[in-house]
Amino acid sequence: MDHSFLSAFILLLLVLDPLGSLPIFIGIMREVPKQRRGIVATREVGLAFLVLFAFMFLGGRFLEIMHLSERSLEVAGGVILLIIAIRMIFGSAGESAYGLEPGKEPFIFPLAVPLLAGPSAMATVLLLASRQPEKIVHWVGALTAAMLVSGATLLLADRIRKLLGDSVVSAIEKLMGLVLTAVAVEMVLAGLKRYFVGGL
Question: What is the Cα 146 distance to its own chain's centre?
């Protein structure tokens, strides 16, 4: 499945899922002083960007070292995205597997990794770079734009929740999950098609 800048941007935005991260982000940041929240959010988004940026450029080498094909990566990435999408659709609001000690300021874990730069995001940027390396400038631009949107969403977390309400935020997240499900299925089908048509 070939991508353009716009489709890569939308895909990365769906994978990063900034709206779905709002309840987790607010819960984690509750113990952080109000004047520090913007600094912490900006720092964590920057760290997540660096992690995904590194994966994008080291993706080809990683595939060689692990003896992985693009077909297997495409199917695996699709499966991961499908799991994330199902959790987005059927998960409970505010559900989180990441704990943090009260009063402790988050650093890298859990906001940068794995909340933003999680396995699905890593697999996505790695797949984009390995499938269409000639468009690497587009992928860097799409990643930058998606991270900027995610960062702005996290910075405005409280205002967004107050403006839209929990029910609307939840509905948007489930809609994004539905779209991501379709993208995930398409990735799996494309990987299987490449495998059976191209052979071993």
Answer: 9
Q: Residue ranges of the alpha helices (H) in 17-156?
A: 18-29, 34-66, 70-90, 119-131, 136-155
Q: How far apart are CA 59 and CA 80, in angstroms?
A: 17
Whether 129 contacts 53, CB under 8 Å: no
Write down the pTM of the prediction.
Answer: 0.74
**Does the pLDDT of residue 127 top 70, yes or no?**
yes
Q: Are 10 and 142 in contact (CB under 8 A)?
A: no
Query: Token pair for residue 166?
Result: 């929990």
What backbone phi and psi angles, to 5 degrees, belong to 109? -100, 135
CA geometry: angle 164, 37, 175, nearest 5 deg: 30
51 falls in which pLDDT band (50, 70, 90)? very high
What is the distance between the alpha carbons of residues 101 and 79, in angstroms, rounded to a whole number? 32
Q: How far apart are CA 48 and CA 118, in angstroms?
A: 9
> d(Cα 195, Cα 70) in Å, to the nearest integer?
9
Task: List the one residue out of 176, 193, 199, 186 whose CA is nearest residue 12.
Answer: 176
